């Protein structure tokens, strides 16, 4: 898909969306949930049944003592378990997958070993080298009798020709298009152009699952006009993407399966007599919470997940995010943390596939820097697309949520929280690697930036609510 020129449809959709957004949609204040769960033990599920409150509390206390003493974990766990209704699940093995190639190989290995079913939910599925590799593997498994169910987003996969998906259908794969752009294709539900499925979930046999930021594509073109490029040997080539995903084995896979089947049913996907929920045994020691967020719910769960974690952090917040247009409450959580002595570092893209979001994000730099937040921009050799955080050396998240209004108000998203010192150490090592290819933004230097940049930041910040 390199060399693709201007794309008029995404521009039209974006402009239409600005007009279509409801003025009453808003992100919830954390104060609304201040007393929830204050005196309760967080529910923790084991491979077979819920753990008792005493064992759940003892588990949290033991985890807390693995690092410098902090109340962050206990306070966060109680609030989010009550707000989300999603329990903590123990007995998992979570593997960190850095960048698309590693994620694709792990996914394809699992897919080729499938015996019963493969469920895939993705924002973008492209007709390119990566997309064709997955298509061939899925068609082969369907031919072998494995049921393949595919759900793709209509806007995210808009550049992909209809013939690509027709071939999958002709091969027996059940394919559904999430919230079609064409209202005539909507299956009886209300047509909402702004409601997109931004999740990436791959589940094989109900025993292994993948999620994170990687789309099934060589590159991901989501900008208003065209994807970013970089200079290489005198030629302009499409930039690569810096993604992060996780592979999960253990009881938490069932929570991702529930999210997939819920969305599959909403898009009138056919029921199948497959073993979607096989017995799951202990696979490791990772404690996991799956946060599924969608519009229409009173709680914006991905937003509350990040906001709660930032608010309760006591030592470290290390955040990597590609689309950063925070609201007032999120900004306050980050700046307050820095002012109380938390080491807050944020890695953002040095260039982006959306100039509007890029400059809107930069409009917040001065306030962040003045409070003591350390801001970095990753080099332009790759487009930062990972959505991750690690807090207090114990709490980590990898997922699909961006820190902007579009993602937090209007998309279906999924984020996985992993609690454990060993996994957090791997996240910190990855963060340090990204810092090594990033440039720190200093306040004195930032104050001397060109006037034209200031104009772009002011202009785009006006539309921050719709980005």
Account of the 3D structure:
- The protein has 467 residues and is α/β, with parallel strands linked by helices.
- 36% of the residues lie in helices and 23% in strands.
- The protein is built from 15 helices and 21 strands.
- The protein has helices at residues 8-20, 53-64, 72-84, 100-112, 129-143, 162-170, 253-266, 301-312, 328-339, 355-362, 365-371, 405-410, 421-436, 443-446, 451-462, and strands at residues 44-45, 88-98, 117-122, 147-153, 174-178, 196-197, 201-204, 208-212, 229-232, 235-238, 240-242, 244-249, 286-293, 316-320, 343-349, 374-378, 382-384, 388-391, 395-399, 411-419, 438-441.
- The protein has a 17-stranded mixed β-sheet that branches. It has a two-stranded antiparallel ribbon with strand order 9-10. A two-stranded parallel ribbon has the order 11-17.
- The radius of gyration is 21 Å and the shape is globular.
- The two termini are 25 Å apart.
């Amino acid at each position: 898909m390199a060399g693709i020129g201007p794309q008029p449809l995404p521009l039209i959709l974006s402009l239409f969306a600005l007009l279509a957004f409801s003025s009453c949609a808003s992100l919830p204040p954390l104060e609304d949930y201040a007393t929830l769960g204050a005196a309760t033990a967080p529910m923790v599920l084991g491979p077979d049944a819920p753990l008792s409150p005493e064992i759940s509390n003892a588990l949290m206390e033991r985890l807390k003592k693995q690092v410098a003493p902090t109340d962050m974990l206990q306070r966060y766990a109680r609030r989010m378990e009550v707000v989300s209704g999603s329990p903590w699940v123990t007995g998992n093995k979570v593997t960190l997958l850095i960048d698309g190639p590693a994620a694709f190989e792990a996914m394809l290995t699992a897919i080729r070993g499938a015996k019963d079913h493969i469920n895939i939910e993705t924002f973008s599925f492209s007709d390119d080298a990566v997309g064709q590799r997955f298509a061939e593997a899925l068609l082969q498994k369907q031919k072998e009798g494995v049921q393949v169910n595919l759900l793709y987003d209509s806007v995210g996969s808009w550049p992909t020709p209809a013939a690509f998906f027709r071939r999958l259908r002709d091969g027996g794969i059940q394919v559904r298009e999430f919230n079609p752009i064409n209202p005539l294709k909507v299956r009886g539900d209300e047509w909402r152009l702004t409601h997109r499925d931004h999740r990436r979930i791959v589940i094989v046999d109900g025993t292994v699952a993948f999620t994170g930021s990687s789309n099934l594509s060589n590159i991901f073109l989501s900008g208003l006009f065209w994807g970013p490029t970089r200079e290489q040997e005198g030629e302009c080539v499409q930039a690569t993407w810096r993604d992060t995903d996780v592979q999960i084995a253990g009881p938490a896979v069932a929570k991702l399966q529930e999210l997939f089947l819920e969305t599959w049913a909403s898009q009138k996907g056919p029921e199948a007599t497959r073993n979607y929920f096989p017995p799951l045994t202990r696979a490791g020691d990772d404690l996991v919470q799956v946060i599924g967020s969608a519009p229409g719910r009173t709680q914006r769960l991905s937003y509350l997940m990040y906001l709660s974690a930032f608010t309760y952090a006591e030592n470290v917040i290390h955040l990597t995010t590609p689309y950063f247009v925070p609201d007032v409450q999120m900004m306050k959580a980050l700046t307050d943390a820095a002012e109380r002595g938390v080491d807050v570092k944020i890695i953002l893209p040095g260039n982006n596939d959306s100039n509007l979001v890029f400059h809107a994000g930069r409009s917040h730099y001065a306030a962040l820097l003045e409070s003591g937040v350390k801001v970095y921009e990753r080099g332009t050799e790759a487009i930062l697309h990972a959505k991750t955080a690690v807090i207090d050396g114990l709490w980590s998240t990898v997922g699909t949520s961006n820190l902007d209004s579009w993602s937090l108000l209007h998309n279906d998203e999924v984020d996985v929280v992993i609690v454990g010192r060993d996994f957090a150490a791997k996240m910190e090592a990855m963060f340090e690697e990204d810092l090594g290819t990033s440039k720190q933004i200093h306040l004195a230097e930032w104050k001397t930036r060109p006037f034209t940049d200031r104009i772009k930041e002011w202009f785009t910040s006006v539309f921050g609510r719709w980005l």
